[in-house]
Write a structure and sequence with these properties.
The chain is mostly beta strands and 168 residues long. The chain contains two helices and eleven strands.
């Protein structure tokens, strides 16, 4: 299983398309963790599972998504409604509630991945407005034989090895 995760693109369209085109032949799913600032009928989002962020106006997207991809359950939310700037516990609880192995969120613009109580918690960072990292980032999650690896990339496709991690 391989999934592309991005967030907080804040109106960018060309960069979103370039990232998708770079990886579309190797992935099983794409998730956008909110603040795309695009409409649900935007061509850039047609192949994505997208949630609503605090900068997404209207009701085009759900606040949360739970999706099974090749035997792995994802829970995806932007995070503003789960208070992610204060704690990741609400994400963990929601992940447990829906039986997710992988929880993805945005909102903070800070790229991070960790494993807590058997659940991978991932923020791919922001491709447009990064915080606490010098370039915009997105991530690819790959799961095979009980191992989950998360690889972070800059918008231009350069691997960000310092952020990337593997979990058993």
């Amino acid at each position: 299983m391989k999934a592309l995760i991005m967030s907080d693109s804040h109106g960018w369209t060309q960069e979103v398309l370039e990232i998708i085109q770079r990886h579309e032949h190797e992935i099983d799913a794409i998730f956008h963790c909110g603040d795309s600032e695009l409409n649900s009928d935007s061509p850039e989002l047609k192949s994505m599972n997208t949630v609503s962020g605090n900068c997404d106006f209207g009701s085009d997207f759900p606040n949360e998504i739970t999706e099974d991809i090749k035997g792995y359950r994802f829970f995806v939310a932007h995070g503003h409604l789960l208070n992610v700037k204060m704690t990741e516990m609400n994400l963990l609880y929601k992940g447990k509630e829906v039986g997710a192995q992988i929880v993805c969120f945005g909102h903070t613009h800070i790229p991070v991945v960790l494993k807590e109580d058997g659940i991978i918690i991932l923020n791919p960072g922001s491709i447009r407005l990064p915080r606490q990292w010098n370039v915009g980032t997105y991530a690819i999650v790959e799961a095979e034989d009980e191992q989950i690896s998360v690889t972070f990339y800059s918008v231009d496709g350069t691997e960000q090895k310092e952020l990337s991690k593997k979990f058993l």
